[in-house]
Amino acid sequence: MKAQDIVIRPIITEKSMAGNAEKKYTFEVCKDANKIEIAKAVEELFGVKVQKVNTLNVRGKLRRQGRYEGYTRSWKKAVVTLTEGSKTIEFFESMI
């Protein structure tokens, strides 16, 4: 898989942006990707050094629209921590 296929999109929420001070960045990633592949993809895309990767699977939630109901899609989230000497990711710096 290519790096663009592994990292799908950044997660821009209030809670995820609070981690930027400690160089923790949150991404939606491919369900099949493991921590090593995610670390290599982030290093390749953004030119940073990754210290560790924490992943979790987000289950789809039940949603209703009138009398119809269904589930949102399930997806995988990765919290990437960068090393001390690494530069920051410029995309997230513009969001603050």
Structure class: alpha+beta
| Largest sheet geometry | 4 strands, antiparallel
How many domain regions? 1
Give the helix tally.
4
What portion of residues is helical?
25-40%
**Helix-strand pattern:** HEHEHEEEEH
Shape: globular
What's the level 1 CATH class?
Alpha Beta
Q: What is the terminal separation in angstroms?
A: 31 Å
Q: Strand fraction band?
A: 35-45%
CATH topology: Alpha-Beta Plaits
**Strand arrangement across the biggest beta sheet:** 1-2-6-3
Structure description:
By secondary structure, the chain is an alpha+beta fold. It has a single domain, classed as 2-Layer Sandwich (Alpha-Beta Plaits), CATH 3.30.70. 26% of the residues lie in helices and 36% in strands. The protein contains 4 helices and 6 strands. The strands form 2 sheets. A 4-stranded antiparallel beta sheet has the order 1-2-6-3. A two-stranded antiparallel sheet has the order 4-5. A hairpin with a 2-residue loop joins strand 4 and strand 5. The longest helix is centred in the middle third of the chain and has 12 residues, at 35-46.
